[in-house]
Amino acid sequence: MTSDKPTPQSHTTTVKKLMFVVVGMFAFGFALVPLYDVFCDITGLNGKTNDEAVAYTADGIDTSRTVTVQFITHNAKQIPWKFKPLIQQIKVHPGEQKVVKFYAKNQATQAIVGQAVPSVSPGIAAGYFQKIECFCFERQPLQADEEVEMALQFYVDVDLPKDISTLTLSYTLYDISEKIASL
Amino acid sequence: MTTDTLENTEHHEEHHAQPSGIKRWLYTTNHKDIGTLYLWFSFIMLLVGGGLAMIIRAELFQPGLQIVEPDFFNQLTTTHGLIMVFGAIMPAFTGFANWMIPMMIGAPDMALPRMNNWSFWILPFAFSILIGSFFMESGAPNFGWTFYAPLSTTYSNGSTAFFVFAVHIMGISSIMGAINVIVTIMNMRAPGMTYMKMPLFVWTFFITAYLLIAVMPVLAGVVTMVLTDTYFGTSFFNAAGGGDPVMFQHIFWFFGHPEVYIMILPAFGIVSTIIPAFARKKLFGYSSMVYATASIALLSFIVWAHHMFTTGMPLFGELFFMYCTMLIAVPTGVKVFNWVATMWRGSMSFEIPMLFSIAFVILFTIGGFSGLMLALTPVDFQYHDTYFVVAHFHYVLVTGSLFSIFAGTYYWLPKWTGHMYNQTLAQWHFWCSIISVNLLFFPMHFLGLAGMPRRIPDYALQFADFNKWVSIGGFAFGLSQLLFLAVVIKCIRSGEKAADKPWDGAEGLEWTVASPAPYHTFSTPPAIKDE
Ligand SMILES: [Cu+2]
């Protein structure tokens, strides 16, 4: 197996092959980004919910079960808004439609565009939380001191795994004014 | 095989008049010189990283904030980790590889000597940037050596650019070093040196080099994403822009777990070289050692999420990563049993390299067991981010990797310098180290089990006593390393002349050349005897 004549050429071939691995692995690191998205989309692993409205398909309401849906909100870094759910939690039967309201007020002295990003915990339940209408599908431009009530219409899929009786829906509000401006 | 092929194996370029002084070291392409540079560099980094640890332990000596601000404390833990991982442990092993691999396989030098020079000389720049950031307006990186987003992106203190630049240079250096090792081993073995005749250190570093070229580019990718997220408005890890901070952890640990084997496989190689020499027996289960090393390396790619059990994975994921992680205990166990079996009924003697190797086997196994505990998903929820984790990885990295580096240095120092070192002083180094290192890290297990979180400058009162002992152990261990410096410097300067083969049980081509090893060795390939 030993090559008894190590020539510069044979080194060059080996180096080329190895550089191919290096470049390939660098690309692989970036390929993980879309792969991760696809993987999470299929498994609902990261608690991401649908980002487009779904139509309500009534497969019947399962009145034998009651699921508690809790709402929490966070303001991402320094966005000077008041942002809160009007009710903390609601009990629903799987398959049943509900509308809940969120309150937002821009407390800054200038207009700000906000974007709320939803996340469901436990993550595995995210695929069963269906939003028919949500303020998170759109940007929220608010003038200084403007306030608004925003609606979320949703239902919980009847196929929600039996062992899950409580869902927490968290909204994180981001200031995207700068991003919009730079577009 | 035949001798007529030998003369054209390597055209030794005409011997240049060797430049002297600093130029000799700047321009050198000699594998021994570069090995020496790597080893000294890593020792300096050990002292710098150790110095930072001393400040950390001084702050933690008692509860409350005495010496440093919390933000500076975070900078200390971050740079301590980065310097020890990328500056001390990894370059030390590359130093061994440079010095020993060509001599062990009967090659005249590394395959790509000029690249070798580059891969060393960019390292001091990387660490100057990293350490220099302490003196800049932003301060040094404070987001932990794992630089989790959004700590390193949204909440960065402004040091992210320096950090990313430094890591890129370190990565390029490691990749170049790894390519050099692989090309050397594949193309430059002496005739008759088949793969399965290679010394185990060569094997372990060969596999390590593959790990390096597989995961260092992924690290380069993830730091690039952090850089663009922080400064160029991308949203890889920013939920507002459709990214996901948890994805950072997935990509980081895809690099991070193989990285821990990058830091331990060469240690396995060194210990597997030393134990047979002082047990005066052949290494038990040579081929099983090779296969165990390879399977550890392969498994290391599918266990990364054991660092992320608390991020809310589905049960299936937690079970998968738990079982895969525990599977690694099998090849690792094979290694430990092989070392013990090698010592079993051997005519053992306890010279300094052997002392460090035996300490390695025992203490690394303790670190392995605490790793096994951490691999258990349900209990990891308790241990996660506590001092138990700190205890675990310091057992594997200090009493594991670092002790193997000491063992290897004491083993090959006579070959490098041509002198025997002062055995008494080295004994002192060993005993001071082994006592203080256990005082330093063992109580951390209990602190972690009792709930003390890692990366904090202050702690609850009930942890005070243990922390005091840990700090005392830390100072003692730090000071003990000055003994090591003394032994090495004395050995370079003077000492009784070392024989070509100072250890009677030692095997390998490196002992067939003179001590100190001549500047050029194996310009003509040696004959490999068939066993
Ligand atoms: Cu790991």
UniProtKB/TrEMBL annotation, chain A:
<dbReference type="InterPro" id="IPR007533">
    <property type="entry name" value="Cyt_c_oxidase_assmbl_CtaG"/>
</dbReference>
<keyword id="KW-0472">Membrane</keyword>
<dbReference type="GO" id="GO:0005886">
    <property type="term" value="C:plasma membrane"/>
</dbReference>
<keyword id="KW-0735">Signal-anchor</keyword>
<comment type="similarity">
    <text>Belongs to the COX11/CtaG family.</text>
</comment>
<keyword id="KW-0186">Copper</keyword>
<feature type="transmembrane region" description="Helical">
    <location>
        <begin position="18"/>
        <end position="36"/>
    </location>
</feature>
<dbReference type="InterPro" id="IPR023471">
    <property type="entry name" value="CtaG/Cox11_dom_sf"/>
</dbReference>
<comment type="function">
    <text>Exerts its effect at some terminal stage of cytochrome c oxidase synthesis, probably by being involved in the insertion of the copper B into subunit I.</text>
</comment>
<keyword id="KW-1133">Transmembrane helix</keyword>
<protein>
    <recommendedName>
        <fullName>Cytochrome c oxidase assembly protein CtaG</fullName>
    </recommendedName>
</protein>
<dbReference type="GO" id="GO:0005507">
    <property type="term" value="F:copper ion binding"/>
</dbReference>
<dbReference type="Pfam" id="PF04442">
    <property type="entry name" value="CtaG_Cox11"/>
</dbReference>
<keyword id="KW-0812">Transmembrane</keyword>
Automatic annotation (TrEMBL), chain B:
<comment type="pathway">
    <text>Energy metabolism; oxidative phosphorylation.</text>
</comment>
<dbReference type="GO" id="GO:0004129">
    <property type="term" value="F:cytochrome-c oxidase activity"/>
</dbReference>
<dbReference type="GO" id="GO:0015990">
    <property type="term" value="P:electron transport coupled proton transport"/>
</dbReference>
<comment type="function">
    <text>Cytochrome c oxidase is the component of the respiratory chain that catalyzes the reduction of oxygen to water. Subunits 1-3 form the functional core of the enzyme complex. CO I is the catalytic subunit of the enzyme. Electrons originating in cytochrome c are transferred via the copper A center of subunit 2 and heme A of subunit 1 to the bimetallic center formed by heme A3 and copper B.</text>
</comment>
<feature type="transmembrane region" description="Helical">
    <location>
        <begin position="160"/>
        <end position="188"/>
    </location>
</feature>
<keyword id="KW-1278">Translocase</keyword>
<dbReference type="GO" id="GO:0046872">
    <property type="term" value="F:metal ion binding"/>
</dbReference>
<protein>
    <recommendedName>
        <fullName>Cytochrome c oxidase subunit 1</fullName>
        <ecNumber>7.1.1.9</ecNumber>
    </recommendedName>
</protein>
<dbReference type="InterPro" id="IPR023615">
    <property type="entry name" value="Cyt_c_Oxase_su1_BS"/>
</dbReference>
<feature type="transmembrane region" description="Helical">
    <location>
        <begin position="393"/>
        <end position="413"/>
    </location>
</feature>
<keyword id="KW-0472">Membrane</keyword>
<dbReference type="Pfam" id="PF00115">
    <property type="entry name" value="COX1"/>
</dbReference>
<keyword id="KW-0679">Respiratory chain</keyword>
<keyword id="KW-0560">Oxidoreductase</keyword>
<keyword id="KW-0186">Copper</keyword>
<feature type="transmembrane region" description="Helical">
    <location>
        <begin position="260"/>
        <end position="278"/>
    </location>
</feature>
<dbReference type="InterPro" id="IPR014241">
    <property type="entry name" value="Cyt_c_oxidase_su1_bac"/>
</dbReference>
<dbReference type="InterPro" id="IPR033944">
    <property type="entry name" value="Cyt_c_oxase_su1_dom"/>
</dbReference>
<keyword id="KW-0249">Electron transport</keyword>
<dbReference type="GO" id="GO:0045277">
    <property type="term" value="C:respiratory chain complex IV"/>
</dbReference>
<keyword id="KW-0349">Heme</keyword>
<keyword id="KW-0479">Metal-binding</keyword>
